[in-house]
Amino acid sequence: MSKREKTTQIDPSRRKFLGAAAAAGVGATALAAPNVARAQDPITMKWQSTWPAKDIFHEYALDFASKVNSMSGGRLKIDVLPSGAVVKAFDLLDAVSSGTLDGGHGVIAYWYGKNSALALWGSGPAFGMDPNMMLSWHYYGGGKELQQEVYASLNMNVVSFLYGPMPTQPLGWFKKPVAKVDDLKGLKFRTVGLSIDVFTALGAAVNALPGGEIVPALDRGLLDAAEFNNASSDKTLGFPDVSKICMLQSFHQCSEQFEILFNKAKYDALPEDMRSIITQAASASSADMSWKAIDRYSKDYEALKADGVKFYKTPDAILQAQLDAWSKIIEAKSAENAMFKKVLDSQRAYAERTVRWQSDTLVNFRMAYNHFFKA
User: Helix or strand or coil: residue 59?
Assistant: First the structure.
């Protein structure tokens, strides 16, 4: 036997030991495998939106869920159901807080009845802040902390993310053009949030209804007129089937945004990296939603006109009447609700600086449009 053979030959007793160790290792791996598989099982969350399945708003909810599902590598899966699948639209906040749902997608104005201060995130002229500036106030001007304070006072066990700046909403759909404030008096009108107070002050008889119930109510004569949100939603929900007159521009909801809700216990139980993914997905969805809205709303605006819908600009006299009514409303609400005043004062201070800056710096884009397309 050569010297090389002597050095590489394994002693029989050692060979027996190594074989036993290898077998034990294989057994240990086999036993551990099921635990590894269980650790990789996705966390599934049951969600509901406050929107009909066919509405673009429900699509926005699905877009957010898709981003989370993708960014988490499939470890977190959010399944989103449409409005009414588990609870009614206006009951979403309570359902998420109680754990009936793990999360949801809606708007803060729907919780107006719990504390009127919440409607300040979506109703009224917001001291001239556009919807993107409202989100700036929320995340950088103290709004988020104030919202958490309101929810805590209501014992809401939720984590909220605001996102998705909504373009200015129309005054609404009518049987004939609205030329003056008196034309609103006595109309059975649909709106939500503090917009109820605005239209009531202008003489309308207001009825708050979720999106999916508006057109059927118009069709049955339970409503004379109504507003919802945008050309795409209004087209899909069937507004042009019951009216051919839409008044554009209004201060009643010109600065609104969406809300993503999680049950706090379910959210807190998530790993830290998943919570970070949710935060980043909300920001990404905010940008994506605003870009998609420009594309889809403008296309459907043209489609509605082609379908015979007549669009009119809301007269300045009505817009001024809205502002006058709003001034009285916020004065009265501030006197009766300290939290309302606290939120309002925060918005006012932020708007005084930021709106002045934006108004001073933005160029008149209509001037450029007219230059190229007026003919």
Answer: helix
Assigned token pair, 297:
């709303």
Rounded Cα distance between 118 and 120, Å, is: 5
The residue type at 58: H
Q: What is the pLDDT of residues 144-163, one digit of tens each?
A: 999 999 999 999 999 999 99
Q: Are 159 and 259 in contact (CB under 8 A)?
A: no
The answer to whether the CB of 276 falls within 8 A of the CB of 59 is no
CA distance 191 to 172: 9
Please, what's the b/e burial string for 259-270 (b: 16 or more CB within 10 A of its CB; e: otherwise)?
A: bbbbbbebbeeb
Residue type, 202: L
Dist CA 296 CA 40 (whole Å): 38
Contact 326, 119 (CB under 8 A): no
pLDDT in tens, 281-336: 999 999 999 999 999 999 999 999 999 999 999 999 999 999 999 999 999 999 99
DSSP-assigned states of every residue in 266-299: HHHTS-HHHHHHHHHHHHHHHHHHHHHHHHHHHH
Q: In what order do the strands lie in the sheet with 76-81?
A: 76-81, 43-49, 103-106, 257-263, 158-165
- 159 strand-pairing partners: 262
